[in-house]
Amino acid sequence: MNGQRQSEPPPRVARLVLVTPEGAMVGRLAPVPVGLPWWQDAQSVVLAVQEYHGIDVTILRLLEAVRDRPHGGEITYLAEVAEPVPAEVWAGRLEPHPLRQSYAEPGGPAADLAWATRILAGHGLKPAGRPVQIRSWNLSSIWRIPVARQTVWLKVVPPFFAHEPRVITALAGRSVPELLGHDGGRMLLADVAGEDMYEAPLPRLLEMVTLLVELQSAWTGSVDQLRSMGLPDWGGPALIAAIGDVTERASEELSRNERTLLQRFVSGLANRFAALESCGLPDTLVHGDFHPGNFRGTGRTLTLLDWGDSGIGHPMLDQPAFLDGVAFEYVETIKEHWARAWLARLPGCEPARAAGLLAPIAAARQAVIYRRFLDNIEASEQVYHRDDPADWLRRTAALLRAGS
After folding, report:
1. How far apart (Å, rounded) are the C-alpha atoms in residues 71 and 387?
2. Positive or negative CA dihedral for 59, 65, 70, 73?
3. How far is CA 365 from the centre of its chain?
4. Which stretch is the leader sequence (predicted)?
5. Distance CA 100, CA 104 (A)
6. Smallest Cα–Cα separation from 71: which of 134, 139, 8?
7. 95 contacts: CB under 8 Å, gap ≥ 6
């Protein structure tokens, strides 16, 4: 998810509790400094443990963090090691949890990699080297697998993102990754040429917007098909109920003024959605995490990645996150281009008015998304998202205050 900009986090120090692939306890390693502060980044932890302890590990999940929000600081992970190694006694306990992902359990990553190897074989391919663990957290497990003259990516996601491979399949032939195979939340993806586009210049940013509008306009009449793929519903009735629920559940974390603003906002949502409907842009496919960093590109191509946050709703829901990720001086030009792109496809529509009506709804939707994560992940991993619902509701209140 593309969240609000934050200050640079402190360095990360990782302490690993080790188990065997069968789940037998090995013990705890002495802490090691890690090159990157981001908690979900597994590759830098694996490299640090290789350097400091001389052993190969697979990161399974976060057990404990000293800091109360990401990132940096001292982190304790559960990790898997092929066979017992010298380690300190660990006095903690590993308890089962009904919301734990399969890749966070001993043996889980190996099962995912074995599946990927079978899919590669079906394409006449096989790994040409050792798979590299890139990421492991409550939203995804990602591995890079070298294959002769190319790279493929194994991505495994939890059930609430399991529509991602179905969306990519439905969009095949457009500017999305090539899917080599999928099974539930498992995906094997071909490498995408080019580089990440976080720092894209203005002309490329405008191309990204054009690409999205073209894609969304093609799906405006296919909402039933999107529903059949299991995408979440962010239409008026569903989002009104969800925003009301997350606002009530986060009320104790908000100031009295924020609660008052948000309660008034929730009570007026039906009227706001009616005004939104009069703008003439129908519900369609929403990417859900549309920002420049979710594009890879070359001089001639652009590929839109990470469809796990996608849903069904108003197309302008994708605008705020994108504008949040670009230089301030580009914002007005991008807004104008976005409006022209929709007017070219739906003459008479009012994308600019829709965007204004949607701004606080889009912020509140982020609170809904993070609340959904918290309701569907185990307690030890909730530190990743614990503050996000209230943070996004505060941002919603700030938008309402500015708008009034």
Report:
1. 13
2. negative
3. 14
4. none
5. 7
6. 8
7. none
Residues 6+ apart with CB under 8 A from 34: 11, 12, 13, 14, 44, 45, 48
Q: Please name each of the domains of the chain with its CATH number.
A: 12-94 (no CATH), 104-190 (3.30.200.20), 196-403 (3.90.1200.10)
DSSP secondary-structure letter at 174? S
CA 243 to chain centre: 20
What is the CB-side half-sphere exposure of residue 316 using CA atoms within 13 A?
30
H helical segments located in 346-387: 351-375
Pick from 84, 75, 34, 96: nearest CA to 57: 84
Note the pLDDT tens digit of each residue in 139-167: 999 999 999 889 999 999 999 999 999 99
Q: CA-to-CA distance for 205 and 218, rounded, in angstroms?
A: 20
Question: Residue 368 in contact with residue 243, Cβ under 8 Å?
Answer: yes
224-280 pLDDT, tens digit per residue, is: 999 999 999 999 999 999 999 999 999 999 999 999 999 999 999 999 999 999 999
Nearest in space to 312 (alpha carbons), one of 141, 105, 167 = 167
